[in-house]
Each structure stands twice: as structure tokens, then as C-alpha cells.
Amino acid sequence: MLNRLEMLRIFIATAEASSFKEAAARLGISPQAVTRAIKELEQLQGELLFHRNTRNMRITSFGETLAGQARVSVGALDELFLRDKAEADFESSGLVRVAAPVGLGRLRLLDVLTALAVEHPRITFDLHLSDQHSDVVDEKIDIGVRFGFMRDNRFVARRVTSQRFHVVGTPDLIRQVGAPQDIGQLDTLPTTAFLDASTGRAWPWLFKGGIQCNPARPRFTVNDGEAECRAVLAGLAFAQMPSFLAEPYMASGELVPVLAELEPEPWDIYVYRPQKGPVPARIRLVHDRLVAALAGTSGVSGTEAAASP
């Protein structure tokens, strides 16, 4: 029989992983050792801890409760052997799951998280990049970043900055085909189309007063913001892009804004976390660093509150 403390450590790691194989990799043991530990613990408890089949596994309600109790108990025991810096290091340890839009995650968040991983080697990260809203509960997301409105009162959300949307093209493209003078002229010019992965249709272009349109002549269709940006920089088409992608190239003169007077209202960017009691030190640390990185030097002061409908 396994040492019971080690059994609990394996169980906690498995509860935080998506599979027995992932838990084994994090612990540096074999998947068979994880399976044996879970089976022994289930026998001791007389309860099923995970629903599992050949494709996936999901923790049971009893397992969730036991995992919470185990974290407290194992943490308390570990604290008996920690002093000063070692104790502080323990508090900033464990898994942090982060969800963010693809382009924003790659350009603004990835460097922050890798720097944190170097500074705090006992923190592990699970970064989920998607332009679709993540299911925070099912995916057990600890911290999320989102464009637009936050209307779910399950979250504590902090507005950190806002993003404008620019219609842009290269100077060469404008010399060749001219700049659009109104929204209707976009139908006569080469444009990009950015696909919504959930519907397979192009996202509409947004303009002042709530006007939306889909230009009629997309020359370059894509589902990745950075790929779209590269196509625009190559002079293939006009595109509507968020400021975090467009503005560095606007500042250098590589891209020129058009239809600026018709820009829509900026979209807010929020950093949010589920409302679930006390916030562990590692979650506070990552949350605060992401807020600082997204706010940048713009002087935007975010406010934190429960998101409400």
C-alpha cells in the first residue's frame, strides 16, 4: 500500500489535471502509479473519485470535496516544514489555468507568463488560447482575459484597458486602388475576412452608430489575427484590426488608417476570475501581473467588481 500522504499528493495532482497521463507527467511517475493510487484511495474512501472511460475522465462531486480537503490538509502539513523564503515559495506554487484570445495572448500575455514561470519555478501554467469564450467552469479556468462585455455574475472582473478598431491598408495599396471614402466603397476594394470558428462565417466589420457590414470582395480569408496582419502588411487587402495589432505598424507608417471618423466605440478588455472564495497567492500573483501588462503605460485605471447582467 502507498504511503497515504503520497497517495493524497497524487490525488490532488490528478484532480488538477485533464487525465491520469497528464498528472503522471507532472509528478514524474508512471500513469500506472497514478491509477494504483487513485484505486487505493477509492477503496479507502468507499466512493468513486473519477468518472473515467477510454477517452476522458472527470472528477466526481465527492472527489471535488475530498480534493479541497486534501489540499488544506497536505498544505498544512507542508507548512510545518517550511520557513521564511521556503514558506513564501510554497504559497506561490501550483497550477494556474489561463484563458485568453489568440492574438492578445501571443502578443501581450505569453512573455508575462514565461517570465513568471522563470521567477516562480513552482508555479505551473496551462494557457488556453481561443477566440471563442471558454467555459470557465468546465475547463476550471483560474484567470481569463476577454474582449467586450462581462455580464456573468459568477465572475469578479476588472476592466484594465480598451481597444480601438482600425480599418488599415499599406501606403502602396492605397496608391494602387485608392482609400475608401465611405463604408459602401469597401465593397469595391480588396479586403480580408476574419472567420468566426464557432459559425464558420466571417465576423462583421464594426462602425460608428452600430453599423455592421461584410465587405463583398474578400481577397484573403483567415481565422488567425497575426496571419491577417501579415497579409495586410504584404499589401494584399484592407482589414479592420484591433489596436494592439495595428497601432505598432501605424506608428511606423507601414499601415495607414482609413475611415477613421467612422471607427466604432472601443471595446473594453477585462481580466476576470471565478468567484470561489479565498484567492490563492499564485492566482493573485498571476492576476496582478496580467492586469499590469494589459494596462501597460496608458494610465488606464481598472476597477474590480462582480460582473452583473
From TrEMBL:
The keyword Cell membrane does not apply. Keywords: DNA-binding, Transcription, Transcription regulation. It comes from the Bacteria. This is LysR family transcriptional regulator. Residues 1-60 form the HTH lysR-type domain. InterPro entries: LysR-type_TF_proteobact-type (IPR058163), LysR_HTH_N (IPR000847), LysR_subst-bd (IPR005119), WH-like_DNA-bd_sf (IPR036388), WH_DNA-bd_sf (IPR036390). Belongs to the LysR transcriptional regulatory family. It holds the Pfam family LysR_substrate. It comes from Silvimonas iriomotensis. The lineage of its organism: Bacteria, Pseudomonadati, Pseudomonadota, Betaproteobacteria, Neisseriales. SUPFAM superfamilies: Periplasmic binding protein-like II (SSF53850), Winged helix' DNA-binding domain (SSF46785). The keyword rRNA-binding does not apply.
